[in-house]
Structure formats: C-alpha cells, structure tokens
Write a structure and sequence with these properties.
It comes from Harmonia axyridis. Keywords: Antimicrobial, Bacteriolytic enzyme, Disulfide bond, Glycosidase, Hydrolase, Signal. Pfam families: Destabilase. It catalyses: Hydrolysis of (1->4)-beta-linkages between N-acetylmuramic acid and N-acetyl-D-glucosamine residues in a peptidoglycan and between N-acetyl-D-glucosamine residues in chitodextrins. It contains 7 helices and 2 strands; from the N terminus they run ααββααααα. It is an all-alpha fold. It has a two-stranded antiparallel ribbon. The longest helix has 15 residues. The protein is globular, with a radius of gyration of 14 Å. The two termini are about 25 Å apart.
Length: about 150
Amino acid sequence: MDKLYMFGVLALCFAGVFSDDLPVTQQCLGCLCEASSNCDISGNCAGDVCGPFRITWAYWADAGKPTVNNEAPDAPQAYLHCASDTYCSALAVQGYMQKFQQDCNGDNRIDCDDFALIHKHGGYGCKGQTLPAVFGQRYQQCKILVGGQGQQ
C-alpha cells in the first residue's frame, strides 16, 4: 500500500486524538505507529506487546488505562481491547507522553524524537539512549516522508 495513502488514513484515525492540550501531534503519532508495527491494525499481540503501537499492559496502565466504548478499566479484556484499537491505543500513547514528556536527547526541546525514545525506552529510561535499529529506521523514514523533521 502506498505510504502516503496509509499516512492519510492514519491521520484520519488520529484526528480525534489530537488537541492543543495533548503533547503528540498527528504526524508524530503516525510515525510512532509506523515505526512500532508498520501500523499493523490487525490487533495482534507479540509476546507482551499488542496493537499498532505495540504497547504493554504497564504502558497502558501508566497512560491512565483508556478504554474502548467506556469499558471499565478493570475489565479483564480492557487492556487488550484498547491496545488493539487504533484510536484507544493512540490515546494511551498521548496519556503516556503527557505523564513522561521530557527532553531525552538533550537538545533543549521536547519533540517527536523525544517521544520516540520515551515510547521505546520508557518514561524513566530514555536519557542517553538511541532507538533500536528497525524502529529507528522506520521512524526516520516516516519523518522524512511526512516532513516532520523535529516536529512534535
């Protein structure tokens, strides 16, 4: 599938997940999704990570346990339902970044590069880190594609 077309579809999916009071832009969310799983929206899990952003239960919990269709956060399948849902999992990323946003790479600004490091290394482990090879390559390619050089 054409990457520009896919990004357009993702932008529509994430349109409701973006507002002025949320830290991550639509472009950045799209690149985090692309880097995480090629934005695989099939809902599959691989080990302890699920959904298009490949989030864990702990990540989802730290993000405030958003749910699909007002499901109770303590429902047995709430994490799986959210992680597998593009909109809900994007809300989880927003919640996680709201909680842990910081300048990970020391460039005196908080932007998508920092969010990528936080996404992969966690809210307490992003400083002084680099992105894993495959994730990092996909992320950089996406940034070039969407023109998001250094944008949130």
